[in-house]
Amino acid sequence: MSLLWRAVAAEPGARPWSAALRGTEEWLTFPARLPSTDDGLWFSADYELALRITSRSRLRRQSAASAVRTRVVEFSGQVARQFSVADFGLAEAEVSRRLLEDVVVDDPEISFGSIAVRLAADPEDVELVKLRERCGPRGAVQAEEHRAQMRHLQRLTEDVYSDPAVALRWWFDRNPEQIRDLATAAMQLRLVLAEDEKGSPPEAEAAGTAVRVLLGGLSSGERAEVIDRLALLISGFGRRDLAARLRADGESGEGGPG
Fold first, then answer.
1. How would you classify residue 146: left for phi > 0, otherwise alpha for psi between -120 and 50, otherwise beta?
2. Would you say which domain of life the source belongs to (predicted)?
């Protein structure tokens, strides 16, 4: 709860909490919930108002008091929703200031003798907001790091691992002191590629066969044109490594991807 309790006197020298005023003014005390800028989190508000209502009708005075209460809560909510629950002290100060300075109720029969409001926020809500503030930037950094790692892996897949010979040279270039392990690395690379080929789905094998049959029945000029179109299509799916392999196989006369 806020330690600050604001009582605003509308007239110089008036004492809003004096018992003498209670005989001539309508006093309202009520709680309310006010929205904040944090989605799903609310302020708790406590009001104490002193109203001057000129009408002597009891029904009119009750109706006016109810209307004032509704309007004060609506007006306070419009101000409070600009603040986070973590800033409930600032929200309280601004709500108090605006209730004093703005025309909250436009009715010549109603005026405020005094207005006091106290705002508070659940400590768990405040801690949640602070946690969001700390984790938000951290999460964005981690997401960007992950994207960078995936882009790096994609480049390695396309430029290095798509060609066993290039992959082996790439490994040796970064591990020159481990030349004795070169044969082991080459063997492991061949095993991985062999497992990749064994794991090809049936539809992929059928597509490869269809391409080979198609290319085998074409003239050299037609074959080159079809290979270019297929390579362009494959590149559109982000697999420039496969497109390059297709072109290389076509130039060597193998007739398409295996």
1. alpha
2. Bacteria
What residues form DSSP beta bridges with 34? 43
Q: What is the DSSP letter of 38?
A: S
How does pLDDT run across 144-198, given as a tens digit for each residue? 777 888 888 788 777 777 777 777 777 777 777 776 666 676 666 666 555 555 5
Q: How far apart, in Å, are the Cα atoms of 235 and each of 155, 190, 238?
A: 13, 25, 5
From residue 24, how far is each of 56, 63, 192 by CA, in Å?
A: 11, 17, 92
Q: CB within 8 A of 154, min separation 6: which ones?
A: 238
109: Cβ contacts below 8 Å, ≥ 6 apart: 53, 54, 55, 60, 64
**How many CA atoms, within 13 angstroms, populate the side-chain half-sphere of residue 98?**
17
Report pTM. 0.45
